[in-house]
């Protein structure tokens, strides 16, 4: 049985293909288009999924979509009517996209790919729940989903057992932790649905001086973790802007930060306050959910579940023994959830398929790579596996920054060793080198470590695997300053040999030279671009950044 899952028309559109309940391919449209967080219908992602499995669209038995457009359209109309005549211009902007695209998913699927069979719709937060639970290692779990907004829900919770998910409570628009985070992201001069993680990176540089003000003026936080927003401060219900400029300026004592301008301490303190509020809300939600279910396993999804700092606190301080977080927790993961909701809850299948890894995207042969290198007329060497590992480990030990391209591309927002930039974590100056000369991004942004799973507890306060870089935990060692944030924390990726043998072998070679089984791992891209997918993407990144070398499978290029 082949099932196709789809998400699109908001941000991070994606496609996922299941074969008898196992994910055989998944990809985000941005990797094909080059447009970060591309929201458009994922035609190329669907074509890739079919090609990867060697099937045609006629082989698809059922398709699932990650939300119910009619319900969402109802919310859009009701919201605009409630605030009319304010928001009229935004209403005129948004309606054509609904009338031409968003209400016509089956037609678009048929027109672009010739799909004629049944398309089933899954509520947005059910898709989030399914995306996490059905690939988790649990047969029973409590479920928490938190994001900006789906149809009406902005957060939901419940439980799952076997092949059945039951969502028992939900928080509804316009009250939303995700929209609060996005509004402050915008106030701090960053892009909504794009830069929220930058605010998380800013937070440790500040003090939560506005925490009490948030809870007094902006957020009415209830004991169960649900919240009410003081809507006089927000404008997202009108469609075009997230916040009331005059009132935010009066509240915080500073104007909205201009994008790319210098960041004063007040803005760092606002970020710190928002992050503390977020962690407080998540912990309260989790406590309430555990008291309701008494289940020790928790599955998390929704865009807010990508907040690795809150996840780290939840693991350490929360009531759950075991936590599984959907690695593509945002809307891209909705494609996975839609596919699994169809497979389990519509088709009634009861078999389980825990996620093995996230290497679900395209791979490229040595011939493909050679052709791309020769097209650019670049000098290169072809090395055996052993020579490659020893050579690259030596380069990293010498302080070189190396692009690392191999195998199938990762699905989701994190580079996990197949489309990565690697560097020496011992070099305290490496952060500035990478931020300034390679990634061309803000100086406060941290970098993540990848560490062998059996050595992780030597360097980090962690006692469980973290294969998807979704937990931020305290750093124990002074030997790895390049991956230690200003608050002595790191967003850790733990690695088993079977998950990624080549990267594991490289880390071991680096350990032989340095005594440290850790590498700095960041995504193979530069600011404003998606993670590289093709050899040509990787070569472009290499040539247009300060990287010293690039590995493409067994080819090595050096500047």
Secondary structure elements and their pairing?
Layout (H helix, E strand, L loop, with lengths): L1 E6 L6 E6 L2 E7 L1 H4 L9 H11 L8 E4 L3 H15 L4 H15 L2 H9 L5 E3 L2 H10 L6 E7 L6 E9 L2 E9 L4 H11 L8 H7 L8 H8 E3 L5 E3 L15 H8 L12 H29 L3 E5 L6 H10 L4 E4 L5 H16 L19 H11 L4 E2 L2 H13 L4 E4 L13 E5 L6 H9 L9 E5 L3 H4 L11 E4 L14 E7 L5 H14 L3 E6 L11 H9 L5 E4 L2 E4 L1
Domain module count: 3
* CATH arch. level architecture of the largest domain: Alpha-Beta Complex
Share of β-strand residues: 15-25%
> Mind telling me the C-alpha Rg?
23 Å
Q: What characterizes the major β-sheet? A: 9 strands, mixed
Q: What general form does the structure show?
A: globular
The count of DSSP E runs of length 2 or more, i.e. the number of strands, is 21
TL;DR?
By secondary structure, the chain is an alpha/beta fold. The protein contains 19 helices and 21 strands.
Please, could you describe this protein's structure?
It contains 19 helices and 21 strands. The protein is of the alpha/beta class and 559 residues long. The chain has 3 domains: 2-135 and 328-346, ATPase, nucleotide binding domain (Nucleotidyltransferase, domain 5); 172-325, Nucleotidyltransferase, domain 5 (2-Layer Sandwich), CATH 3.30.420.40; 366-558, DHBP synthase, CATH 3.90.870. The strands form 4 sheets. It has a 9-stranded mixed β-sheet with strand order 13-21-20-14-15-19-16-18-17, sandwiched between helices. A hairpin with a 2-residue loop joins β2 (14-19) and β3. α6 crosses α13, α7 (177-187) packs antiparallel against α11 and α11 (265-293) crosses α12. The longest helix has 29 residues, at 265-293. The chain is globular, with a radius of gyration of 23 Å. The mean pLDDT is 96.
């Amino acid at each position: 049985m082949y099932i196709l899952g789809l998400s699109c028309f908001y941000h991070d559109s994606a496609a996922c293909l299941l074969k008898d309940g196992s994910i055989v391919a998944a990809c985000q449209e941005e990797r094909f288009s080059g447009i970060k967080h591309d929201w458009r219908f994922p035609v190329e992602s669907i074509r890739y999924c079919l090609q990867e499995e060697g099937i045609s669209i006629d082989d698809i038995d059922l398709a699932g979509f990650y939300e119910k457009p009619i319900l969402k359209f109802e919310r859009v109309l009701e919201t605009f009517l409630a605030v009319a005549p304010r928001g009229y211009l935004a209403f005129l902007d948004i309606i054509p996209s609904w009338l031409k695209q968003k209400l016509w998913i089956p037609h678009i699927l048929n027109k672009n790919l010739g799909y004629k069979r049944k398309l089933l719709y899954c509520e947005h937060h059910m898709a989030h729940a399914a995306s996490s639970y059905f690939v988790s290692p649990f047969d029973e779990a409590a479920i928490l989903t938190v994001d900006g907004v789906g149809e009406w829900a902005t957060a939901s919770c419940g439980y799952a057992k076997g092949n059945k998910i039951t969502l028992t409570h939900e928080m509804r628009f316009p009250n939303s932790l995700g929209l609060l985070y996005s509004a402050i992201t915008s106030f701090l001069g960053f892009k909504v649905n794009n830069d929220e993680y930058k605010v998380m990176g800013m937070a440790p540089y500040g003090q939560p001086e506005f925490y009490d003000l948030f809870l007094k003026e902006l957020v009415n936080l209830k004991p169960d973790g649900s919240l009410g927003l003081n809507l006089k401060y927000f404008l997202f219900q009108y469609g075009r802007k997230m916040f009331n400029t005059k009132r935010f300026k009066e509240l915080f004592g500073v104007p909205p930060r201009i994008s790319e301008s210098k960041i004063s301490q007040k803005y760092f303190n606002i970020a710190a306050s928002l992050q503390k509020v977020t962690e407080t809300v998540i912990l309260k939600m989790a406590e309430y959910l555990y008291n309701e279910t008494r289940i020790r396993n928790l599955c998390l999804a929704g865009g807010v579940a990508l907040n690795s700092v809150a996840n780290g606190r939840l693991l350490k301080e929360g009531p759950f023994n075991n936590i599984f977080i959907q690695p593509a927790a945002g809307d891209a993961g909705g494609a996975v959830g839609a596919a699994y909701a169809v497979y389990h809850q519509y088709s009634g299948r009861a078999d389980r398929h825990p996620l093995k890894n996230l290497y679900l995207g395209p791979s490229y042969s040595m011939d493909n790579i050679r052709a791309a290198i020769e097209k650019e007329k670049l000098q290169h060497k072809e090395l055996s596996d052993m020579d490659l590992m020893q050579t690259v480990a030596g380069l990293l030990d010498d302080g070189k920054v190396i692009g690392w391209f191999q195998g199938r591309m990762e699905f989701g927002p994190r580079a996990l060793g197949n489309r990565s930039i690697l560097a020496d974590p011992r070099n305290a100056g490496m952060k500035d080198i990478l931020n300034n000369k390679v990634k061309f991004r803000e100086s406060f942004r941290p970098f993540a470590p990848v560490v062998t799973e059996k050595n992780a507890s030597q360097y980090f306060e962690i006692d469980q695997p973290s294969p998807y870089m979704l937990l931020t935990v305290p750093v124990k060692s002074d030997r790895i300053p390049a991956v230690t944030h200003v608050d002595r924390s790191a967003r850790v990726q733990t690695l088993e040999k079977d998950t990624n043998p080549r990267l594991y072998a490289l880390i071991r070679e680096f350990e032989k030279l340095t005594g440290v089984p850790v590498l700095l791992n960041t995504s193979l891209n530069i600011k404003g671009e998606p993670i590289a997918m093709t050899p040509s993407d990787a070569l472009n990144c290499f040539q247009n950044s300060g990287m010293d070398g690039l590995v493409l499978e067994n080819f090595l290029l050096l500047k």
